[in-house]
Amino acid sequence: LRNWWFSVINNISCRRLWFSDLCSKNRSVDCIPHQNYDYSLVSNACCENTLGYIPVPVGFAGPLKVDDRTVYIPLSTTEGCLVASMNRGCRALQLSAGVRTVLLGDRMTRGPVVCFEDIVQAYDFKLWIENEDNYLLLKNIFNSTSRYAKLTAIDAALSGRFVYLRFSATTGDAMGMNMISKGVELVLSELQHSHFPNMKIISLSGNYCVDKKASAMNWIVGRGKSVSCEAVVRRSVVSDILKTDVDSLVELNTLKNLVGSARAGVLGGFNAHSANIVAAIFLSTGQDIAEVVGSSQCLTFLEKTGNGDLRISCTMPTLEVGTVGGGTLLPAQKACLEILGCAGSCDEFPGNNARRLSRIICAAVLAGELSLLSALCAGHLVRSHMRYNRSNLKLMKSATSEDSFLEQFSNLANRALKPKNIPPQSCSTVFM
Fold first, then answer.
1. Is 112-203 assigned to CATH 1.10.1270.20?
2. Is-above-0.90 flag for pTM?
3. 8 A C-beta contact, residue 353 and residue 344
4. Sign of CA dihedral 279, 57, 74, 49
5. Is pLDDT of 409 > 60?
């Protein structure tokens, strides 16, 4: 189809008409924008059968001092009040010397599954993998597939005659799934042809990675970037900005995020709303949004210091992020990474940009946790959402004809374009 048209936009326009016919001439596709977009970055990289793109609002929170830099955090969301709440958390932290972070680990994983004729052969293979000399042999093979992928470990788990391998590697500034998969594929081929001809490769992924699923393994061992951060918030800031007190926050965090989550049997969900912040930053910076399920695993901990201030920390062992590849190449997403100061690859120290992004995300989660817990303590959550998370527009009725659809769409567009006098708003007072 692409060769029949002079431009990509004509190709997409044709596909939209065809898709509309497939849907019994449903005109809803007309509401999906498709012009003024560089599809050359999307083709063979981000999406197939492209019809257009989905605009999602982007706001920002900040400033927030993260280690040695002050950043403004772009957040792409349709949840009203989220950015305002984040902004309040940032303000409280900014008045209290900011956030300090530490990087606990950096590894992407891939977990293939292989099969042998019986359990004895499987066990012999496991022992062979665990031999240091053999590991070094496989490491050289793996590392030959990329300038940036560096194998750091191979773990083996046996289940009958099946062996589950877990390859761990650093992958520079890329999130690294494609990179590590390429290396694992070559290692498996070498194992099969040169050492274990009876080995059958069942799958490149046997779910031992563990990718796009919450797991105890990733929660304990880590995957992607493992980060922890902390801040000390002065009690005067807790009172003046967050409208609560230190003792109430510590008690709520214990009963909600620790006891409540444990009672519910959550896995890595010892937090108030980490996924909100992770998803918003993932959308704005072009991350793999499906990785939110693991990347949002977080332990939030609060305690009262000796002088009555609040110490808050967030530990996130599974932040699967990158600053090159995938959606990070798209113009808007790349711009958001540039705002954060970590776009593209770090030539001098490969991997530093992705690590920096993970630190910023962890600090942003801390700001979001601080503000939401404070809102719950003060009883402001429902009031703020009723004020900032409700649409005043009446929902459009389903169009029963072309004329009614166009009329409704025209009326909505006119309302959206009509100038409104909107007074300046201080986000720090949303929950006051």
1. no
2. no
3. yes
4. positive
5. no
CB 75 within 8 A of CB 277: yes
CA distance 25 to 401: 10
C-alpha to C-alpha distance for 429 and 237, rounded to whole angstroms = 13
Domain range annotation of the chain = 1-55, 58-106+222-386, 112-203
* Distance, CA of 176 to CA of 142 (rounded, Å): 14
Region 226-243 average pLDDT? 98
The DSSP bridge pattern shows strands 100-110 and 162-170 to be antiparallel
Give per-residue pLDDT as tens, 288-308: 999 999 999 999 999 999 999
Q: Mapping DSSP to helix (H, G, I), strand (E, B) and coil, where does residue 133 land?
A: helix
Q: What is the DSSP string of 145-212?
A: T-SS-EEEEEEEEEETTEEEEEEEEE-TTB--HHHHHHHHHHHHHHHHHHT-TT-EEEES--S-S--S
What CATH homologous superfamily does 1-55 map to? HMGR, N-terminal domain (1.10.3270.10)
Distance CA 357, CA 352 (A): 9
Rounded-to-integer distance, Cα 275 and Cα 368, Å: 10
Taking CA atoms, 65 is separated from 1, 34, 73, 91, 231, in Å, by: 50, 38, 11, 10, 11
Cβ atoms of residues 62 and 83 within 8 Å: no
Q: What positions carry a catalytic annotation?
A: 79, 212, 288, 385
**CATH number assigned to the domain covering 58-106+222-386:** 3.90.770.10
What's the CA gap between 374 and 233, in Å, rounded? 12
Inter-helix orientation angle 352-378/331-340, to 10°: 80
> Which tens digits make up the pLDDT trace of 149-186?
999 999 999 999 999 999 999 999 999 999 999 999 99
Best CA proximity match to 212, nearest among 327, 321, 291, 319: 291
